[in-house]
Every structure is written in C-alpha cells, then in structure tokens.
Amino acid sequence: MAAPLHSSLERRYARLGLLLIAPTVLIFCAVIVYPLVSAIYLSLFRVFTPTLESSWVGLSNYRELLASGLFWKALWNTLVWTAGTLTLQIVLGIGMALVLHQNIWFRSLARSLILFPYFISTVVAVLVWKWVFNDLYGILNHLLMQSGIISMPIDYLGSMPNAMISVILVGAWKYFPFVVIAVLARLQTIPEPLYEAARIDGAGPIARFFDVTLPQLRDVLVVIVMLRAIWDFKEFDLIWLLTGGGPSSSTETLPIVVYRQAFALNQMGMAAAWAVSMMAILLVFMIVYIRRTREKGPA
CA 190 to CA 272: how far, in whole Å? Predict the structure, then answer.
C-alpha cells in the first residue's frame, strides 16, 4: 500500500516540477531558440529586406561570405578591437580595483565615481569623445598644441591607425568599470592571513600581488575575460557612432557588416549568414577558452 502511494506522490512532484519550469523553458525558447533557428533558416535564403521576398540558395551565402575579402578584413578588425580593448579593460580594471581596495581618503566617493563611464549612455559618451577627438576644435588637440607636443592637429577618427586606437581607448574607458566592480568584490573576500604569511616570508608588494592576489583572482578573471570578450566581440553602437566603420572600412567590424548587409544592401539572408558565422566563431572561442582554463586550473 505504501509503495503505490509513494509512486503517486513522486508523479505529482514530477508534474509540479514540470509546471514550475515550463515558463522558464517557454521564455528560453522564445528569446533564444526561436531567434537562433530563424537566423540559421534565413541564412539559407536570399532575402530582400524591404519586401522579405526570398529564394532558396542553400549554403551559397556562406560560400560567398568566406570567399570575400570583406569577411576576413572585418574579422581581423573585430579581433584587433576585442583584444585591444579587453586587454586595457583588464589592466585598468585590476589596477583601479587595487587602488580602491586600499584605505584611502574619499574611498566611497571614488568607488561611486569610477562607475560613471559604465552607466553613462553610449550616445552621450560618444558625443563627448568625438568633441575631445575633433581635429578642428577638439580639446585634446588644443592641449597638445598649447603644450608644444604637436605642431599640427591630429585627425584621431579619420585616419589609420589613429581611428582604431581611439576606438579601443574609448571602449576601454567605457567598460573597464565592470572589471573594477568584479575584481574589487573578490579582493574583499581574500583572507588577510594569506598576506600576513607572505609578509613573514619576506614577500614585497609585487611578490604578494603575483603570489597571493593574482591566484585568488583567477576564477573571477576567467569569467570576466569570457563575458567581456563576448560583449566586445559583438559591440556595435560605440564603434558605429564613433567612426561608422571608417575610414575606408578600417574599423568596420563584423556587427557593422551585419547591419550594412541587412539595412544598407537589403540582403537579410546574407546578414543572417554573417550573424551565424559570428555565433560560430564565439562558440569556438568559448569552448577553447573554457577547456584551456580548466587545464590550467589547480589540480
């Protein structure tokens, strides 16, 4: 008698569990699965954006994409942008987090102000930086000329490699507070006895950073690098508003090409193929990155 009752209770709990997770599954399918399947499906057609008139082309979009020099150039620009801005974000973020972790005056105020770039609207930030970088009336050229460092204004956004360097610097300034928040939170949980033991062993500040702080930050840095790499790789608005992909497509990244294919050239199918290719590249990166970090992890 007890066995059938127990079995009936388990079935009830199983049905209740399915009922509780059903909304989450439905939202997941609506937000992730359906758009992903739709993008892959669209990439197999030649679609005219204004009318959505389509014709089956199979893998022709992918063959055309891989055979074009535009894809490889945009991929290279994307990798340069991602690697450059991510490196600066990590370096600046860790450095600023270490400073804010110290017992300094106005620490609470400084911790609040350091978040300002991350919370400010991208449009507002770009407008400010375009004024700073302007080659005719920008404050940066004015200060450099007044100090005698340069004799002629520099075109920061209209020539290479200035444009890519400027975009990378703005991206690092805009997003490094995210690294500060995450690293600072981890620094506050590192046991103080670890530093005391290192001091007793004669370790200086640099040795304590590499032998104590950095190993303790490893796990959080793994997550930060993965998240920021994904977000930087698909960054669109900041680069588009700063340079529009110019000059001469020298800062044109994969997301910008997707936008141009879909809404400038009205080739929604080709745009979907570009987007699916981006997803595949990110997927390969995540798999390789996670495996490498696990292999290097503590035994």
Answer: 45
C-alpha separations of 206 from 55, 88, 210, 212, 219 in Å: 62, 20, 6, 10, 20
H-run or E-run covering 46: strand 45-48
Residue 35: which domain range?
2-42
Q: What are the tokens at 248?
A: 């001469």
Question: What number of CA atoms fall less than 13 Å from residue 103's CA on the CB side?
Answer: 0
Residue with tokens 């460092």: 149
Ramachandran assignment for 186, one of left (phi > 0), alpha (psi -120 to 50 degrees), beta (any other): alpha
Identify whether 278 is part of a domain. Answer: yes
pTM: 0.89
Q: Which of 239, 215, 228 is nearest to 181 (CA)?
A: 228
| Structural domain total, the chain | 2
Nearest to 78 by CA among 212, 272, 294, 239: 239
Q: Which residues of the chain have pLDDT under 70?
A: 1-6, 296-299
